[in-house]
Specification:
Layout lengths: L7 H10 L4 H16 L10 H10 L4 H17 L1 H4 L7 H7 L2 E5 L8 E8 L11 H18 L5 E7 L5 H5 L3 H12 L6 E7 L6 H9 L3 H4 L2 E3 L27 H13 L2 H7 L34
Parallel strand pairs: 2-3, 3-4, 4-5
Antiparallel strand pairs: 1-2
Helix pairs in contact: 2-3, 3-4, 7-9
């Protein structure tokens, strides 16, 4: 799968919205690289394309780019379950990926937004088929691939189709892992989430979602849209032709898009194997570091105590 690049008009709009031009982007990318090389606790081997993504994703703020880049790299030490074992071609990982689909759609909205769809596959009602860590690895790895290939976009729209979620699967979610996932995906990536749309919402999901909102930043919560309606609801938020065939669009079949995106992620196997070696040495972190790793523990238990009316 190849992601459709922004048109000239979309690129101009993306740059204008964050008050950026190409010459300034080059200067800021070099400044960010020089800063990275000066940090004794961080790995230094990120390429310029990834650094460019941080500048654009952090809305042309060099200081914000430093903070998010430090957090992004520090997660390899503070959240090893997401980063220390993520060979996309590993047979176990491939098997667990069969229970859900995460697709980055190839098109781009007129505003310059990328659109992703997350949904569970219909499987027997067994909580053992759901592994939040595997889900997190797939999503976070997908962003790493995009940081290499997709440097210019204005924001993300995430579609979460709740149709096939089961209560047993949600019971398998542990709150400490969920909190780390929220930190890595919501607070440590150069990504601007514009809309998070839940369709086919059911009574199974609603109480869980209310708990999730408590650990999200309010700005993120305000951009969440929920509905019990099916895919036609999406037509007011995403150009119809961008959506998969099963969602009323013409972008292709979901299974084909999912397989194509998985192949794209697997094509970066060597990069992921190298990334698994990247570590942050906290003993060398400067006292006045732009980022201080968060305490990500302290929430125990799972969703097993939830009661559904």
């Amino acid at each position: 799968m190849e992601l459709t690049p922004p048109t000239k008009e979309q690129l101009e709009r993306i740059f204008k919205d964050i008050n950026l031009n190409s010459s300034q982007l080059q200067r800021d990318t070099k400044s960010l690289k020089d800063w990275l090389l000066s940090q004794p606790h961080l790995p230094h081997d990120l390429d310029d394309r990834m650094l460019t993504t941080f500048i654009v994703g952090c809305k042309n703020s060099l200081e914000r780019s430093k903070q998010i880049l430090d957090a992004y790299l520090s997660n390899r030490t503070s959240c090893p379950e997401f980063y220390s074992s993520r060979d996309p071609c590993d047979p176990t990982f491939r098997q667990r990926n069969k229970f859900f689909q995460y697709i980055v759609l190839p098109g781009m909205t007129p505003e310059g937004y990328r659109v992703s769809i997350y949904r569970m596959n219909p499987v027997p009602d067994d909580g053992n088929d759901f592994n939040l860590t595997t889900n997190a690895i797939k999503v976070l790895s997908s962003y790493d691939v995009r940081f290499h290939e997709d440097n210019y976009w204005a924001g993300d729209i995430i579609i979460i189709d709740c149709r096939h979620f089961t209560f047993r699967q949600l019971q398998a979610v542990t709150l400490p892992v969920l909190k780390k996932y929220v930190h890595c995906g919501n607070e440590s990536l150069p990504v601007r989430y514009k809309k998070i749309i839940f369709i086919n919402l059911s009574s199974i999901i609603e109480p869980v979602l209310s708990i999730v909102k408590r650990i999200l930043k309010q700005k993120f919560v305000q951009r969440m849209i929920t509905t019990t309606e099916d895919y036609p609801f999406l037509f007011d938020h995403v150009p119809r032709e961008m959506l998969p065939d099963e969602y009323g669009g013409s972008a292709g079949q979901v299974d084909s898009l999912n397989d194509s995106w998985q192949q794209k992620v697997e094509s970066y196997q060597e990069w992921f194997l190298q990334d698994m070696k990247r570590k942050v040495d906290e003993s060398k972190r400067p006292e006045k570091s732009v980022y201080k790793p968060k305490q990500l523990f302290g929430i125990e238990g799972s969703f097993k105590t939830l009661t559904i009316d």
